[in-house]
Write a structure and sequence with these properties.
about 240 residues; alpha+beta; four-stranded antiparallel beta sheet; about 40% helix; globular
Length: about 240
Amino acid sequence: MLVAPAVTAGGADVVLKVQEPHRESEHEAAALELWDGDGAIRLVDSDPEEHALLLERCVPGTPLSAAGAETALAVYIELLPRLWKPAGAPFGTLAAEAAWWADSLEETWERFAKPFERRLLDAALEALHELPRTQGQHVLLHQDLHGDNVLAAQREPWLAIDPKPLAGEREFGIAPIVRSRELGHSKRDVLQRFDRLTTELGLDRERARGWTIGQTIAWSFDGEHHATHVETAGSACVSV
């Protein structure tokens, strides 16, 4: 992926982003168009054939992860309802993504020599099989909304970047924040984030817990994040 500052013919500071095609970012331009700058960077232009986006530039661009846990949570709680706009096509659905994760999860767990307890695998599979069929309203979800994907800007204090969009229920939307290790990674930190997000955003706790476990375990085979993702899922598996 190439991300580089640029200047338009009219003299505006922008960012050029060119990336290899990937299923998770397939409809990034459409997500930015739907948000239309409401809590997220604006899409200036795009070239689908070249997989290139011209994006609003965030200045100073400091990541939310540098602001501290309390500030970050307050920002997320203000930001998420603005990003949760009703959504359908062309976005992939949370139900389809959950089925894709569940289909290979046990085989991947065995191929990686069973790197975590069976109870975590079973909890993830149960959530990924059961939750999709009873979802609430479908909204646009940013499935990778961690502290480095929200940047300080001038137009607004904080703007979301780099959506990996899905259409699904709101309860899924807090999963990446609950596992954001930069906000504190102890069991107490994880559960406090979960409590505050579900309470202040009015979310169903059990559904949010299930989605957090399901996606976190599905994404836990990334070598860089394996240990912390497994620990987060283990924390979420306790009674909350």
